[in-house]
């Protein structure tokens, strides 16, 4: 009833100079800041390791492309052009062959010239049919990106699996390399996103600490490092929801602990 309501004792925090009981102390904020800095450092180390693995995998793929060779296809000895829709008859002196697929082609459909080093044709451009010319143009993108230039994680796409097959590489081997590179690319992208989230949280914690210390909030990573180096950590906080006391707590920008 109303009498019971009026006899309730006000919260100690409300009575003591307007300090809110759910606001974490300077020491608690500092402990959380230190934990976030440790996690950020661990993430940077993992990112650096993944980048080393990525570069090593690219180098192994380059070496595979450089040394892998496969026998050229058997040539078809047909009396008509095998290009889809072509009805030209072929005599002995007008018979040509695509060096990639081995099909018999007429002069009009064997004008493409391409490098296919993995089929044993060295550095010389050889005759190809229209279909294989198209596929080799696609695959040449992979060879160009692996031609001694730095490869960034964003360069790697699933198309590399097909490009490798187009230029005469083993599909399963290329697929294994590309799958590994795609996994490392996802890891690196995740590390970058996580680092950005930690940076934002660290700056928020730094601003909250400086506000409690009566200092102007500085929005820089160096300020966070200086505050962390100049202060000590410690203290535990009750969860704002269940009131349990945990060793590892997370403080959100509003000051609550969970």
Describe this structure in words.
With 258 residues, this protein is mainly α. 49% of the residues lie in helices and 6% in strands. The chain has 7 helices and 6 strands. The strands form 3 sheets. It has a two-stranded antiparallel sheet with strand order 1-2. Strands 3-4 form a two-stranded antiparallel ribbon. It has a two-stranded antiparallel ribbon with strand order 5-6. Strand 1 (96-97) and strand 2 form a beta hairpin. The two termini are 34 Å apart. Mean pLDDT is 75; it is low at 8-20, 217-238 and 245-258.
Order of helices and strands: HHHEEEEHHHHEE
Overall shape: it is: rod-shaped
Strand content: 5-15%
Helix count, DSSP H or I runs of 4 or more residues:
7
Brief synopsis:
The chain contains 7 helices and 6 strands; from the N terminus they run αααββββααααββ. By secondary structure, it is mainly alpha-helical. The two termini are 34 Å apart.
């Amino acid at each position: 009833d109303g009498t019971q309501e009026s006899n309730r004792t006000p919260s100690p925090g409300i009575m003591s100079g307007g300090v809110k009981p759910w606001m974490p102390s300077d020491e608690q904020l500092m402990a959380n800041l230190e934990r976030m800095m440790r996690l950020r450092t661990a993430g940077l180390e993992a990112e650096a390791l993944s980048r080393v693995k990525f570069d090593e995998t690219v180098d192994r793929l380059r070496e595979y492309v450089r040394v892998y060779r496969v026998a050229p296809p058997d040539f078809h000895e047909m009396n008509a052009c095998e290009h889809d829709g072509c009805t030209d008859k072929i005599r002995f002196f007008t018979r040509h062959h695509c060096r990639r697929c081995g099909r018999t082609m007429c002069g009009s459909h064997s004008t493409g010239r391409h490098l296919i080093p993995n089929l044993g044709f060295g550095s010389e451009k050889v005759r190809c049919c229209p279909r294989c010319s198209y596929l080799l143009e696609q695959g040449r993108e992979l060879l160009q990106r692996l031609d001694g230039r730095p490869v960034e994680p964003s360069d790697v796409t699933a198309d590399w699996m097909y490009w490798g097959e187009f230029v005469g590489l083993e599909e399963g081997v290329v697929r294994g390399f590309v799958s590994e590179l795609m996994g490392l690319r996802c890891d690196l992208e995740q590390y970058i996103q996580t680092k950005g989230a930690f940076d934002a949280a660290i700056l928020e914690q730094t601003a909250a600490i400086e506000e409690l210390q009566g200092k102007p909030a500085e929005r820089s990573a160096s300020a966070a490092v200086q505050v962390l180096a100049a202060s000590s950590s410690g203290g535990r906080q009750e969860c704002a929801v269940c009131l349990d006391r945990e060793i590892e707590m997370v403080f959100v920008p509003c000051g609550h602990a969970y």
